[in-house]
Please model this.
Amino acid sequence: MIKKEMGARHYLFPQPAALIGANVHGKPNYLVAAWCGVMQAQPPLIYVALRKERYTLIGIEENGTYSINVPSADIVVETDYCGTVSGKDTDKSKVFTTFYGKLETAPMIKECPANMECRVVDVLDFGGTHKMFIGEIVMSYVTEDVLAGDWPEIKKMDPIIFSTDGTYWRFGYSIGKAYKIGKEYHHRPKG
Amino acid sequence: MIKKEMGARHYLFPQPAALIGANVHGKPNYLVAAWCGVMQAQPPLIYVALRKERYTLIGIEENGTYSINVPSADIVVETDYCGTVSGKDTDKSKVFTTFYGKLETAPMIKECPANMECRVVDVLDFGGTHKMFIGEIVMSYVTEDVLAGDWPEIKKMDPIIFSTDGTYWRFGYSIGKAYKIGKEYHHRPKG
Model:
């Protein structure tokens, strides 16, 4: 276990490959982002960090709303496509089927099994390359086919993993339940 | 693709199962957290959201430093164990081999293939259950055995995925390169 110093860089694995939706000048636009995450359950907060020159930013600032959509592996081409072209030059509104929810200005993607519509509650800017939009989740939507009670079944949902080295992955197999498998630690030989 | 309204809840997949390290009263303490993510590349910012009553909080506020450690599937029991007991009642300093870096007060885990030591640059509190600690990454460390150039090889690193339904998973197989597979979109029949 020899450690190598890598400089001040991020090595967080896994990250999501989420599609961020915003209406820019009244038209749906989507981009793919790995830098988003949950911040709080009650009230439910989430964030997305976006490079300041991104076209989507205009829409988020225009409406104070955005969506986070979780794509399946079967739309990885469309997902990545939304990261390779800018809404500035290319109309991405027809790549997916858009629907709207409570906020009316946060476009969401029907083809994605899970969607969260968010109202911006804070914007952070530390003087670097990115702005962080903290959003309160106003309503979430899940495609009925993937649901098992309150939660999507991973194998049906088939979410895309973004790996920090710039590759997309599928989930493999489950290795245990949280707050449960850890109890085995007590029965292990120590030392 | 019939959508079901799920209430204002988070459905972000995947999330990391990161081990957060802090010295509490001079002793290393580790907890497992899924609510962390990258915020910016330059300067490199990352965050972790922690329930306010967590013991680890005391250490982060004491030193203004913490670490984010990425565990492998082979230590999933130890990882989850750190989420099932509190440092208040249980000494978790011997679960892993601790090492320190530049900051000297952010304990890191030798058994984890990737480690980031962070200096707190901001603390957010939206009056809910959690506090968010935004940290600047001061130095990162990767175990040499898992490295292929500048990046860990996923199959060697074998990071743990936290699924929002409370289960841990391993990575499956790669389905493409970011900023590359999306180019296939241009060659697809539309309509």
